[in-house]
């Protein structure tokens, strides 16, 4: 009886792990498709010069937002950073936030964050940080180049954009929090990882993330 129970438990655990791994791979593919689609229209995309100069990037496909009097936002995505050899192996991130006011509805929104400094990268390695609190954030410009945008937003540690219902624009995610998604990291790599080592290029990119890294390299020039 105990042997049978052990076998059933083992099979269920393996099935859950397989399902989680498939969900993570699907999210990586969605992040790749999202970024390709955003960059496909240069006049309405992230400026290439900002991509070239960025320290790290966070991609969150399909952040969910629901609201009835009190709004809530939740999403899961991936962060990768610039290294001497190109974009690093990704680490998983969770983004959460809330808003108050009379609002009814639900939606899914794609989020892109560009981290522009080493201090911003350090925030990605912390247990939790708040946009607009621990790290300055501003709505990112849209277009081929950002040279015309010399106002305060260009001094923010993090620039952010959103895409909802086909509309891509800069958005300041004030008050949203980001934290590590350790469960997804374990599923993606098959074991616990050192997130700092991953973002510094000391851990190989998992096969499921290879296409995403190729896409980022293509549009940013980092690693070429």
Descriptors:
single chain; 224 residues; alpha+beta; eight-stranded mixed sheet; 6 helices; 33% helix
Q: Please state the CA-atom Rg, rounded to the nearest Å.
A: 18 Å
Shape estimate: globular
Q: Helical segment tally?
A: 6
Unreliable segments (pLDDT under 50, ≥5 consecutive)? 5-20, 100-106
What's the N-to-C terminus distance? 59 Å
- Overall structural class, as computed from helix and strand content, comes to alpha+beta
Q: Give the fraction of residues assigned to helices.
A: 25-40%
Mean pLDDT: 81
Beta-strand content bin: 25-35%
Summarize the helix and strand pattern as letters: HHEEEHEEEEEHHH
Largest sheet: 8 strands, mixed
Number of DSSP E strands: 8
In total, how many domains does the architecture comprise?
1
Topology (SSEs and partners):
Layout lengths: L1 H38 L8 H6 L2 E28 L2 E2 L3 E25 L2 H7 L4 E2 L6 E3 L18 E7 L2 E4 L6 E4 L1 H8 L5 H5 L10 H11 L4
Parallel strand pairs: 5-6
Antiparallel strand pairs: 1-2, 1-3, 3-6, 3-8, 4-8, 6-7
What does this structure look like?
The protein has one domain (2-220). The protein is α+β, with helices and mostly antiparallel strands and 224 residues long. It is built from six helices and eight strands.
């Amino acid at each position: 009886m105990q042997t049978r129970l052990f076998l059933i438990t083992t099979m269920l655990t393996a099935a859950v792990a397989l399902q989680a791994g498939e969900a993570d791979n699907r999210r990586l593919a969605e992040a790749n498709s999202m970024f390709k689609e955003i960059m496909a229209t240069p006049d309405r995309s992230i400026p290439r010069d900002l991509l070239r100069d960025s320290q790290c990037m966070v991609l969150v496909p399909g952040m969910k937002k629901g609201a009835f009097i009190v709004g809530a936002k939740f999403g899961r995505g991936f962060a990768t950073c610039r290294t001497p050899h190109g974009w690093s192996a990704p680490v998983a991130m969770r983004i959460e936030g809330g808003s108050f006011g009379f609002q009814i509805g639900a939606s899914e929104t794609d989020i892109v964050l560009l981290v522009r400094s080493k201090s911003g990268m350090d925030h990605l390695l912390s247990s939790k940080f708040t946009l607009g609190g621990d790290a300055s954030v501003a709505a990112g410009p849209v277009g081929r180049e950002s040279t015309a945008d010399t106002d305060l937003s260009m001094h923010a540690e993090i620039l952010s954009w959103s895409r909802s219902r086909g509309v891509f624009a800069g958005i300041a995610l004030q008050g949203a929090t980001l934290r590590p998604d350790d469960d997804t990291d374990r599923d993606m790599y098959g074991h616990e990882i050192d997130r700092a080592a991953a973002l510094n290029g000391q851990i190989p990119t998992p096969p499921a993330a290879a296409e995403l890294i190729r896409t980022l390299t293509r549009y940013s020039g980092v690693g070429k």
